[in-house]
Structures are given as C-alpha cells and as structure tokens.
Amino acid sequence: MNNCPLVWVIMGVSGSGKTVVGRLFSERLESDFLEGDWRHPRSNIIKMQSQIPLDDDDRHQWLLEIESDIQRAVAKNRETVLTCSA
C-alpha cells in the first residue's frame, strides 16, 4: 500500500469555479487547501490584469512554486487540494 498522501490538482481557466469547487472538495475530504494562483509573482499579476498572456518564461517560477507546495504536502503527509490555472 502506498503511504503517500493524495494531492488533488484542480485546473481550469479564470472564472471557471476552481476555487469554489476546490474549497468545497477540501472541506468534504477534511484536507488542506491551497490556491496555486496565489503563487504568481506580481509581474505575472500585472500582465494578466492588462490582458497580456503569460509566456513559458512567466510560468516557469510559478510552476516551480506549485511543485514545492506539492512536495511539502507529501513531506508532511497531508492530503491536499490545490487549484491553479495551469
């Protein structure tokens, strides 16, 4: 049997309800909840607010931050629901 905690990743476009569904799901599971989009650096937020699409360079550090969140959840043996617009 695998002893690693389950990390659920809910993805979708902006405004699709990821956060609402993720929070409800984590409550039902009694698990931790993380909003991955909070990991965006200020420069990405400014671009998105200006309707400028992010490129791969913009997303690189953000995805590394999400990876770190997942690794921390596993290291702490915590079931986690994570939402992001990946």
In short:
With 86 residues, this protein is an alpha/beta fold.
Structure description:
- This protein is of the alpha/beta class.
- The chain has one domain (7-84): Rossmann fold (3-Layer(aba) Sandwich).
- Helix content is 47%, strand content 16%.
- It has three helices and three strands.
- The protein has a three-stranded parallel sheet, with helices on both faces.
- The longest helix is centred in the C-terminal third of the chain and has 20 residues, at 56-75.
- It is globular and about 40 Å long.
- The model has no long low-confidence stretch (mean pLDDT 92).
Annotate the secondary structure layout:
Layout: E1 7-11, H1 18-29, E2 32-35, H2 42-49, H3 56-75, E3 80-84
Parallel strand pairs: 1-3, 2-3
Number of helices: 3
| Largest sheet geometry | 3 strands, parallel
Q: In oligomeric terms, what are we looking at?
A: single chain
Total discrete domains = 1
Percent range for β-strand residues: 15-25%
Number of beta strands: 3
The fold-level CATH name is Rossmann fold
Radius of gyration: 14 Å
> What series of H and E elements makes up the topology?
EHEHHE
Class computed from helices, strands and strand pairing = alpha/beta
In which order are the strands of the major sheet placed? 1-3-2
What CATH architecture label applies? 3-Layer(aba) Sandwich
Secondary structure: helix percent: 40-55%
Poorly predicted runs are none
Principal-axes shape call: globular
Mean pLDDT: 92
Assign the CATH class.
Alpha Beta
Relevant CATH superfamily: P-loop containing nucleotide triphosphate hydrolases
Distance between termini? 30 Å
